[in-house]
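Ticket opened by: R.M.
Priority: normal
Category: complex prediction / small molecule

The reporter submitted a protein together with manganese (II) ion and asked that the result be attached to this ticket for the collaborator who will pick it up next week. Submitted input follows.
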Amino acid sequence: MIQTPSHRRDPARRIAQRLEDADSIAIATHLGGDGDGWGSACAIAHHFPDKDVRLLAGTPFASIFRFLLPAGIEPLPPDEAGFEALRSADIQLAVDTSEQSRLGEFGAYYEPERTVVIDHHAVSNNEVGASIALIDPKAAATAELVYDVLVCTGKPVGPDTARALYVGLVTDTGSFRYSNTNPHVHRLAATLIEAGVDPEALYGPLFATATPDQLGVLGAALDAIRRDEKLGLTWAVLDQGVHRRFGPLDEYEGIIDHLRNLAGTEIAVLFRVTDEGKVKVSFRSTGPADVANVARAFGGGGHVKAAGATISGDTAVVTEQVLKECRSELARLRSRS
Ligand SMILES: [Mn+2]
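Result attached by the on-call engineer:
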């Protein structure tokens, strides 16, 4: 049996009680809901089949998570019906975010007395007011906290609930590879498998989702890889030709990882021509190089190891300017060591 960390027991028990007492529960997650946000929301919906549970999608519900939805539940967009579902619910629940702005248009309808938050992000300065919150940045996923709540209901966690929570764990830990992967995460994964999760059966819906166009764009990117071996700089340009052939290139977020995985890479850069004739630039750093700093030089931003910018101008000119800035960042590191 897995132990709930002691500091979470009291809020988990109180939230479980509130959920059990409610007839209707409206649940939203952050804009661009991911496997943890929707996994957490769907787990709660599965656990309370006799309650009126509504899911609120501030941005369109990603089709790859449809297999998690309980039969008969369709996520509501931010329109009059969606706002009314939230306004009339006994509990207004936010999962995987506590920030009002990240709840999108739904954020304005949360009322503190009815609001409950379950989240593992550090508290910001834009919180929704909540009557009870279970917030623990030490949790690898919100799904971990939802599990703590659901076990307090005394009703066993069923296979559909377990599967939705497992999806949250898998996605937020990068398939148990990121630094948030720890013994508790693996114990919870084991518990969920005992509750009926079939990990292999999740491979298809979660990871084998590429379309022929996605693989075509990936092929074009791999074909276009260039590198400066001495500096550890790797890049690829998806130009007008690729855009004409495959259409908008704004998605395809995973391609940059193939560039960063090339051995010896310290900075990876992917250039994509956009519909508006601008160039979308994604950066990854594998070591001490600060790509947020490089992105800021072009009006973008991000984290030290993952950043981006969208730049107006001719693709060849933009490419040269950005690579020059990357080279000076790498040269700066070299001179320091
Ligand atoms: Mn999360």
